[in-house]
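Milestone 3.1: sequence recovery, worked example.
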């Protein structure tokens, strides 16, 4: 067996030490990452609004919306400004839809028709604005911030 000079022995020790350090880092890092979980965030007060499905209606396309009021307020008036786009992003229609009354903690379904349009001509729906929003007799400021749109339909629902 050839004899190693002192420089070669030092390099061999360095290689072994760096391999061991890398091994420890790979094994220990996932365990450290799992220990530090971010604190659970408190649920945000809001109104979930889901575009559940679209189907052919009498004069156009019928839309089904499922809303859940996660706020302590009873909404007596809520009118949404919705804009419908085709698959290419061109505006097809704009409509005002009344979603009230909506009681605190209540889940409800609202159905409305988008007259004169085939459901297959839609690419997405935009929650453009909230035209009116009242809890009892008092106007609710920044009502659109309370709304959280989602979609189970074949098209998106965004704000």
């Amino acid at each position: 067996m050839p004899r190693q000079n002192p420089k070669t022995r030092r390099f061999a020790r360095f290689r072994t030490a760096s391999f061991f350090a890398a091994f420890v880092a790979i094994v220990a890092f996932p365990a450290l990452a799992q220990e530090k979980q971010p604190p659970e965030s408190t649920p945000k007060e809001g109104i979930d609004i889901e575009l559940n499905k679209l189907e052919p209606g009498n004069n156009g396309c019928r839309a089904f919306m499922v809303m859940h009021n996660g706020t302590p307020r009873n909404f007596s008036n809520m009118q949404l400004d919705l804009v419908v786009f085709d698959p290419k992003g061109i505006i097809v229609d704009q409509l005002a839809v009344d979603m009230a009354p909506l009681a605190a903690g209540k889940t409800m379904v609202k159905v409305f028709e988008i007259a004169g349009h085939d459901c297959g001509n839609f690419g997405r729906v935009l929650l453009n604005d909230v035209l009116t929003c009242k809890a009892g007799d008092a106007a609710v400021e920044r009502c659109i911030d309370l709304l959280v749109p989602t979609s189970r339909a074949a098209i998106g629902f965004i704000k």
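Residues 22-27, 29-42 have pLDDT under 50 and may be disordered. The first strand starts at residue 47 and ends at 56.
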